Amino acid sequence: MHQAIVNWFGRNARDLPWRSADCSPWGVLVSEVMLQQTPVVRVLPVWKDWMSRWPDPGSLAAAASGDAVRAWGRLGYPRRALRLHAAAAAITAEYDGEVPGSYDRLLTLPGVGSYTAAAVAAFAFGHRETVVDTNIRRVQARLSSGQALPAPALTAAEMRLATELLPEEPVLSVKWNAAVMELGALICTARSPRCTECPVRAECSWLAAGEPEPTYTPRGQAWAGTDRQVRGAMMAALRAAESGLQRELLFAAAPSIVTQVHGTGTESEPDSDALSPVGAQLHRLYALKAEEDQLARAIEGLLRDGLAQALDGGRIALPL
DNA sequence: CACGCGTGGCG
DNA sequence: TCGCCAAGCGT
């Protein structure tokens, strides 16, 4: 089974720049953070631009966090850009600008959890690590456990199984981790798996069991009418401002979003009390349009200081 | 530990 | 069309 999957990987692996032999540990770290919950095709152009602009942790640490957020573009979950910026600062201050190679030290960095720490230690430093991402979990669930999908949350049993399956030899273990991830991404996909092309279809417990249905239904993420929608609109306006914020852009985005959050289109002004916390804050900001000096300072403050809270706290903390 | 966090493409 | 899904993390 190991031989079949590793051989398949040798023939079918995508040619991704962060897999190149001359890619730095920093490049691997940046790719892993960008790939958290974001598809490869969307990461590729942003990663190239990011690495060209900030080729090492020190250069990113010297930049403004707002620039990191803008360069993040539309990858989503922009708090990751803030955490990567903070990680660059920590690497510069505590590790002399060199990305640490040990799992334990990587784990201390902002935005680096158990998966990313293991992935960077393995893929950038060649260490033998138990790497478990959503692809590996799904392959294990089908191949070994006969389940259509893994459990909603990562379990200790899954970690044990992954460690049991991991080859002893470090170089082979790195290939194995990458190969199983790639198999999950290209063949053993969540919705329409391409089992006829699978190199281990003969050993698959899920196929042998007759492709049973998932035993639970995943819960979707709310979007319309939520604070997330308001934050998304504000982030789009903030990104659009190249230097400082052109407040017209924020105002242009505000009324339609406030109306959406409040309800269907009416001529009257929305009642701010009926809005979500972020929606109410945005409405309050919109109402201050006349006082331009105060408004300009507020927006600059939002960009400079309040952005982290806006992204992390679930509410816009305007310094008004 | 269950939950909230952006965004866009696809079945 | 619309809900599901994508190399998770922090609280």
Question: What do these coordinates show?
Answer:
- It is a single chain.
- This protein has 16 helices and no strands.
- It has helices at residues 2-12, 25-34, 40-53, 57-61, 65-72, 79-94, 103-107, 114-123, 134-143, 156-165, 170-186, 205-208, 227-240, 247-262, 277-287, 292-312.
- Helix content is 57%, strand content 0%.
- The longest helix is centred in the C-terminal third of the chain and has 21 residues, at 292-312.
- By secondary structure, it is mainly α.
- It binds a DNA duplex (11 and 11 nucleotides) through helix 2, helix 3, helix 6, helix 8 and helix 9.
SSE arrangement:
Layout: H1 2-12, H2 25-34, H3 40-53, H4 57-61, H5 65-72, H6 79-94, H7 103-107, H8 114-123, H9 134-143, H10 156-165, H11 170-186, H12 205-208, H13 227-240, H14 247-262, H15 277-287, H16 292-312
Helix pairs in contact: 1-11, 2-8, 5-6, 9-11, 13-14, 14-15
The structure holds a DNA duplex (11 and 11 nucleotides).
